[in-house]
Amino acid sequence: MKTIDCIENRNSWVTRLSIVFVLLLTAHVNNAQTTSQLSGKLTRPAVYQAMEKVADWQLNTPLQHNLTDWTNGALYKGMVEWAKIADSSKYYNWLYQVGEKTNWQLGQRKYLADDHAVGMMYLEMYRKYHEKKMLEPTLKSLDWIMKHPSHASIKNFSYKKGNNCTDRWSWCDALFMGPTVWATMANVNGKKKYLKFMTKEYKATADYLFDTNEDLFYRDDRYFDMREANDKKIFWGRGNGWVFAGLAIIMTELPENYKERPYFEDIFKKMATKLATLQDSSGYWHASLLDPQSYPAPETSATAFYVYGMAWGIANGLLNKETYLPVVQKGWNALIQAVHLDGKLGWVQPIGADPKHVTSDMTEVYGVGGFLLAGSEIYKMLQ
User: Fold this and answer.
1) How far apart are CA 136 and CA 102, in angstroms?
2) Residue of 315, 172, 296 whose CA lies nearest to 244
3) Of residues 24, 42, 22, 110, the one with CA closest to residue 310
4) How high is the pLDDT of residue 35?
5) CA distance 308 to 319
6) 361 belongs to the catalytic site
7) Neighbours of 130 (CB within 10 A)
8) Is pLDDT at 276 greater than 90 in this prediction?
9) Residues 169, 243: Cα–Cα separation, whole Å
10) What fold characterizes domain 38-381?
11) What is the average per-residue pLDDT within 306-334?
């Protein structure tokens, strides 16, 4: 029996060693998937090359969501910023074809911020081509909302039928999807009424969801009393990424002398200060900002949005270059390491509302949008 036990023991160890070998090999393959052809250096040629590779992969990959969905809205915003830099017109052509397929319409739900995000791309295309068909549907929708504002409460968030809290910006993601379009519209047509509406609604959301002790946003009020495994508050990585990137877009559109501009700048700088302390040693941020041990995998959609916002802050004089450029450098290098050989961006958390586990093979269009926003802003910053 002892001999049999020894043989079984030995076989067990062989099996275990085999498993370890397979795991190591898998890790090696995953690492090999990330491209060695791209450089994480902050030089214009290197940044351009990385954006081109990721953008081309996306153009060759069929979209899985409705063309007016918020997921694609985030992608389009990144793609249009890249199109402004790219030597080829194919990116503008691709965006134009999207607009033609949607008839330049927002999503069907009149109040829902998620269905407004696509408007950012439409307005940028209008700026380039000056075709009224690109502007008028979004203008009509925003004007209708102003004439028929929702009086729904932003409290007691729920997706249940009959709860109309999402008719207003009652969740932090909405601060990327909605107010960015309102601020851009105000800049495009020169009418401040859109800024007045946007600021009022933004303040209502921020006053409710912004934790002044942590300088971070709760995803919605369901998370006020929830805690992570380490007993820390739950602050979702991409959720705060939506807010931080949204602030950069909003402030790009605000007039320098807009009386409420300091309000947005204050939140932006507070978030930047906090976020810089939460970047890990490899340059990534994680799905849960205050409990990375429970979610140790990289999360590139959050990382991309933070890199974008901080690069924008440096370029526009809101963030100290000596303090934040190393953060941007580490973050961009980390993003480059997540790009597969074919240009696919990995480590993107799937659609959700809170921290989730991520793998290197996971990707999504909003992650690509964030990557292109980050690269485009770094490219401009390097001027």
Assistant:
1) 13
2) 172
3) 42
4) 57
5) 13
6) no
7) 9
8) yes
9) 12
10) Glycosyltransferase (1.50.10)
11) 98
Listing DSSP states for 63-126 in one string gives: --S-TTSHHHHHHHHHHHHHHHH-S-SHHHHHHHHHHHHHTT---S-SS-GGGTTTHHHHHHHH
- What is the rounded distance in angstroms from the CA atom of residue 330 to the CA atom of residue 122? 33
Q: What pLDDT does 273 receive?
A: 98
For 272, the token pair is 């930047």
**Each residue of 194-204: b (16+ CB within 10 Å) or e?**
bbebbbebbee
Point out the catalytic residue in the list 114, 115, 173, 291: 173
Using CB atoms within 10 Å of the CB of residue 30, give its burial: 0 to 12 exposed, 13 to 18 middle, 19+ buried.
middle
- Which pair of tokens denotes residue 98? 């999207």
Q: How confident is the model at residue 37 (pLDDT cuts 50, 70, 90)?
A: confident
Domain boundaries, the chain: 1-33, 38-381
pLDDT tens per residue across span 51-103: 999 999 999 999 999 999 999 999 999 999 999 999 999 999 999 999 999 99
101-109 long-range contacts, Cβ below 8 Å, gap at least 24? 101/67, 102/67, 102/68, 103/133, 103/137, 104/133, 104/134, 104/135, 104/136, 104/137, 104/138, 105/68, 105/137, 106/68, 106/137, 106/138, 106/141, 107/66, 107/68, 107/69, 107/70, 108/68
Longest dimension (CA), the chain: 88
Distance CA 352, CA 117 (A): 17
Residues in the chain: 383
Type of residue at 173: D
Least confident of 18-22, 97-101, 127-131: 18-22
Contact 340, 35 (CB under 8 A): yes
- What pLDDT sits at residue 15? 35
Which residue is associated with the tokens 């509302």?
Answer: 353
70-85 and 365-381 helices cross at what angle (nearest 10)?
A: 30
pTM reported for the whole predicted model: 0.91
